[in-house]
Design a protein that fits this description.
The protein has two domains: about 5-50 and about 215-380, Rossmann fold; about 60-190, OB fold (Dihydrolipoamide Acetyltransferase, E2P) (Beta Barrel). The mean pLDDT is about 95. With about 375 residues, the chain is of the alpha/beta class. It has ten helices and 17 strands. It has an eight-stranded mixed beta sheet with strand order 1-16-17-15-14-11-12-13, sandwiched between helices. A seven-stranded mixed beta sheet has the order 4-3-2-5-6-7-8, with helices on one face. It has a two-stranded antiparallel ribbon with strand order 9-10. It is an enzyme of class 2 (transferase). This is 23S rRNA (uracil(747)-C(5))-methyltransferase RlmC. GO terms for molecular function: methyltransferase activity. Belongs to the class I-like SAM-binding methyltransferase superfamily. RNA M5U methyltransferase family.
Length: about 375
């Protein structure tokens, strides 16, 4: 991928961009192999590669510049404001939307927030697009409600200019700190979710719910997990109960569960649980339950294990307490998806009752050292 910002040393966010993509993938696989070697995996599958550009369907842009000349991008290490509205990581469809966002900033007189003086209102623009429908979710992160009336007044103009806009909201982040978003979200459109669909599974994204920035590779991740689970049943007989901890909007569980199985999904965010419940209803799944609970507390209170446990924790991993409860409950099979191979390796060393059967790398984050991993473990 060629990027003139990288070549000019204005933006180095893609730390590995100078490496050929084939070498990036080789280096990631080698890193993963070294971390997994002590667990002696039975099978290390070929990595799932990313497109080299146009793969990020979620943008997080700092709003800089002025009302009359807004900049959407970053402040680099030299303190320069860099406009990344033409960043090649995003699909071409983002370019005209960023232009409309700048026009909207001018029209609604949304003053970019200045960190040094702690003045101004608009801090970030968060833009997501559905791979399935092509429609957009736009979130404006504001310091206060001072500009809310102006945003509401001029939103019909933006909707007219951008018919693909499905959802628009304001997030309030009053802290004078580098925090992306606050707790309060004000949805300004009739639609409150952005509909996505991966592998024929409907998924509903709310403004503060987590979803992968790379939907194409995410679809491969979910599909492979479902195939691995199906193979388990063919080889070892039917299993009845599945738990999906850190389930988010239900991506893993809804791909895995079949009509004759039960699924229990656990996620701390109520908005994500509402989305997962809606998806399950649309799919006609009747033996499915999603609950807004802490995954570690849920496992700690449980007395009986599922047949298959699916976990997709944040970067910090499962941690000692949850690993201890997994060992206590002792489910027969464990599917562990991780965005941090180091914490994955740490957790696997704690799960002494399990042997590692399969490992596969999914390159969600081309041009960086980050990647996703899917593993399958069996109770010894």
């Amino acid at each position: 991928m060629y990027c003139h910002h990288f070549q000019a040393n204005r933006c180095q966010s893609c730390q590995w961009l100078a490496k050929p993509y084939s070498q990036q993938l080789t280096d990631k696989q080698q890193h993963l192999n070294e971390l997994m070697a002590p667990m002696q995996p039975e099978s290390v599958l070929a990595p799932i590669a990313s497109e080299e550009q146009g793969f990020r369907y979620k943008a997080k842009m700092v709003v800089l510049g002025s009302v009359t000349n807004p900049v959407l991008g970053i402040i680099n290490a030299r303190g320069e404001q860099v406009d990344l509205a033409d960043c090649p990581l995003y699909p071409a469809s983002f370019v005209p939307v960023f232009a409309l966002c700048k026009a909207f900033i001018r029209r609604a007189t949304l003053t970019p927030y200045d960190i040094a003086s702690r003045r101004g209102e608009l801090k970030y623009i968060l833009l997501s697009q559905s791979l399935h429908s092509g429609r957009f979710m736009l979130r404006l992160v504001l310091r206060s409600k001072n500009c809310l009336a102006s945003v509401t007044k001029h939103l019909p103009w933006l909707e007219q200019q951008l018919p693909e806009l499905e959802l628009c909201s304001v997030n309030l982040q009053p802290a004078a700190a580098a925090i992306l978003e606050g707790a309060e979200e004000i949805v300004l459109t009739k639609q409150t979710v952005l509909a996505e669909q991966l592998n024929q599974v409907p998924l509903y994204l709310q403004p503060q719910s987590f979803f992968q920035t790379q939907p194409v590779v995410a679809a491969s991740l979910y599909l492979n997990a479902a195939q691995w689970a199906a193979e388990l049943q063919e080889q070892n007989g039917q299993f009845n109960q599945i738990w999906d901890l850190f389930c988010g909007v239900g991506g893993f569980g809804l791909h895995l569960v079949q009509n004759d199985q039960s699924l229990q999904g656990i996620e701390i965010a109520p908005a994500a649980i509402a989305s997962a419940t809606r998806s399950a209803a649309e799919m006609g799944l009747t033996n499915v339950s999603f609950q807004a609970l802490d995954a570690t507390a849920f496992a700690n209170a449980a007395a009986k294990a599922p047949d298959l446990l699916v976990v997709n924790p944040p970067r910090r991993g499962l941690g000692a307490a949850l690993c201890q409860d997994i060992e206590r409950l002792s489910p027969g099979w464990l599917l562990y998806s991780s965005c941090n191979a180091q914490t994955l390796a740490d957790d696997l060393t704690r799960l002494n009752q399990y042997k590692l059967l399969k490992v596969q790398l999914f390159d969600m984050f081309a041009h960086s050292s980050h990647y996703e991993v899917l593993t399958l473990l069996q109770r010894k």
